[in-house]
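Honest question from a wet-lab person: if I give you the sequences of every part of a complex, can you actually get the arrangement of the whole thing, not just the pieces? Trying it with mine:
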Amino acid sequence: MNLKSYLDLYELLKNDVSSREERRAFGLSYGLGKSPLDQVITWTSRYYKKLKSPLLSETFSSYMYGVTMTLVIIAFFLGVFSGITLLSYNGHEPVNVVYFMAMVIVLPLFTMLLTVLSMIRSQSAQSILVHISPAYWLEKMLGLLPNAMQKSIETFKINPLLSNWIVIKRSQLLAIFFSLGLLLSLLAVVATKDIAFAWSTTLQITPEVLHRYLNLLAFPWREFIPTAVPSLELIEQSQYFRLGDSLSDEMIHNASKLGEWWRFLVFATLFYALFLRFVLYLVSLLGYHLALQKSLMGLEGVNTLLRDMNEPIISTHALHVEKISSAVQKNIQHIQKLDTSYDVVQGWAIPLSKLTVVIDSMEVITPNIFEVGGGNTLEEDSEIVHKSFGEVLLYVKAWEPPTMDFLDYLEILLESVDKVIVCPIGTEEESYKAKAKWVDIWVQKLSLLHNKKLWVKI
Amino acid sequence: MMKKHPRFAVVGHPNKGKSSIVSALALDDTVQISDIPGTTNKQRSFPLKVDGKILYELIDTPGFQRARRVLAWLEKHDVSADKKHDVVQMFITEHRGDSQFNDELELLEPIMQGAGIIYVVDASKPYGKEYEAEMEVLRWTGQPSMALINHIEETDYSSEWKRALGQYFKMVRTFNPMTTNIEQHVSILESMAQLKEEWIAPVKESIKLFERYQEQRIEESSQVITQLIYDALSHVEELSLSEEETTTDEKERLEEQYKQYLRKLEIATQKKIEKIWNHDNLQKKQTFLTFKNLDLFSEESASVFGLTRKELLITGATSGAITGAGIDLLFAGHTLLLGGTIGALVGGAGAYFGFNELSEIKVMGQLLGKRYLQMGPMKNRNFSYIILGRALFHTSSIATRSHAIRSVAELSMENAFKEKWLDDSLRTSLEKYHKKFRSLDEINNETLKEYETLIKNILFKLIRH
Ligand SMILES: Nc1nc2c(ncn2[C@@H]2O[C@H](COP(=O)(O)OP(=O)(O)OP(=O)(O)O)[C@@H](O)[C@H]2O)c(=O)[nH]1
Ligand SMILES: [Mg+2]
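Yes, you can. This is the full assembly:
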């Protein structure tokens, strides 16, 4: 897993390349028993080919590479020049090793302390410790240069944790190159010039004390390379007082010996500025890797992706979309009030006992009452049609929707009588008054017949 | 052509709620449901599928239109009970393509292919003899069957219905598609399983799946709500400034933009929730998110190199200090760390006072800094509970709404709703997260997941009581 997976996944999720079904199929065939991180990475490596080029990961990587390279080169030359400046011997005064030691021991230790602190604080979005790293704001400044690349990564918001670790990691790399520059300049100066090293400080430090300290600082290598630890004698000889006479005779006498300081300086650089820094670089690599994992799993859409892979797809809906039926017309002859008498009164699926009550309650008079539909056979119905004539009042239960069975009957009836008035009625509890909503449905249905003899009571 | 999984054909008289029942049981809000009889005129299958595998199938059918005619045809063939099934098959074969029996063929076909019969009646209307022909036809098919009593209106004639249905069906159950919940849903599935012995196991599996399905949707909803709350609380709206002085007009514009963002966020979230619960077609009426008594502040701000003044101050001070310390080193301590202190002061002050100048410097045609007015993240604590409460109310209303309902949803939240989900201890745990969201610190996945779990538990309580 690397930054590329992170960026590819980011882009994949943003452009949503796969359907839920594809994701689930992937989960079933590749994801079983794997850790979520593994699943996500495998998925990314399978799908990134679907992304349109240029890939963000490529643009970003080349941008990162460019910035890092530039910074590394700057750091290296900065190291070289600092080294040369520190070691320059103007002929009047010997080179004070304290400066150089500060540069290769104190400064690295101090910045490494800052680094460790910033590693601990890497969670917070805008860690000040990260902000003070030269790697951070040098990039900010480089970023101001107009650049086509800039445009494409502008919209991309990298996880702060990850970006913090990128800066931390990069800072370590810069420090390594800076120190390499220093080391190189030290070696070059030593090889090409003959310099006298000396030490001098305002602080009250006797050569014995300094010797103890240096011995302590040299603990990593003093056992193996004793010549790389300045002896007490050398320290005594190379102490230098600016306020006294220019150079003591002793110093001049021992000038050639004084050069031996360089071994100590080289090893100090190697150990403090380079080795320790390299260890820290490895730690930062580890931290970066963990941050990458964390940010990868924290990308928006990863949870959904994992759920889509691991949760069964359950669906209950219909397979096909239903065709919507068109609106119907309402266009039929109607009456508001029933006449007082009819030649025939019929009730569709209304038993005779009920029918007579309805007829009475509506004050209708008729010599012929029939129940049709309902439990009748078709033959019984057609017999009733034969017996029917003139004006027929046909009661229907308003709440029961008109079926084709009813329309079949109505059509036969209309053929053998002069007029049919269909009268929808309500239930007994409603005192046979039909609800308008139901009457409306009857009207709609009956309109379909387009028959001059057909009337509806509404 | 026998299919292995259980199939259930929902049949009955026109306009008695067959489609409503199917819609509710299949959680599908696209089913055509209307007052007009004959709305459904083709059989439609609603399979319960897990990863493409069908566990059972519900089939919506048109209502009986000419049951008496079908029965008359069948009865002309007087056969022994074991042959009746074949006669029905003969009827189908003989009348295929006959538009007169379109509806009957559509509804008989799945039954003849082995589907169980779910006969739907509306017991808010009186029983009538005209139903007997269709029940008789169904009996001819010889398929296992049950009756489902629906109440479209308030009136109740269920006792006369039960007496009549008892003559034809071994099992009679009541089901209201409009108010159904998961318990009733499960219980109706359990009854359906009883129709045939070999259906018990697959339907049991389906029930488990239905419960899992609801859990899935609650989980998805919690995720969506978590994202909403995080986005809403951490949102910062910025307005680039051109003039020296901020005008009231600019302030108002920013405030409007900020509110608009939050409203849109809420609406988009609701859409997602509705989609999760298969209510894509929902029509709803509700009040908008309001910002009364919330005291929205706007602040002027600026940045150089993408750093705010405070950040630049610290950066300046520290780099000043480091430079100073470097000077100290070069003087080998002669300066008594004065260099570091002075460096910090100079760097800090430089960054602080130079901020405005820096922000106006142009490098290659680009301004180094920008000035803007900003609003958010939301400082008012109450707002978190307002927007969360609304989201929970919306989600629980949607989650418990039957898919058979086609009317406009009135989503008006009463004040008492808060008491249903929020208590002091919950408030304490929620506040911890809300504070984090507002802080603009990086929120890691685990934190969001923890919050999601809190939301999930609330939703479970609200939806499943
Ligand atoms: N209030 C209420 N209305 C219901 C209920 N069940 C059905 N309805 C209404 O009754 C009408 C008919 O419902 P549908 O589900 O379309 O009936 P159907 O049996 O599929 O009708 P067709 O397809 O035309 O045969 C619709 O307006 C429904 O809203 C119920 O339980 N309560
Ligand atoms: Mg229907």
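Two things worth pointing out. The longest strand of chain B covers residues 53-60. Residues 200-234 of chain B form the longest helix (35 residues).
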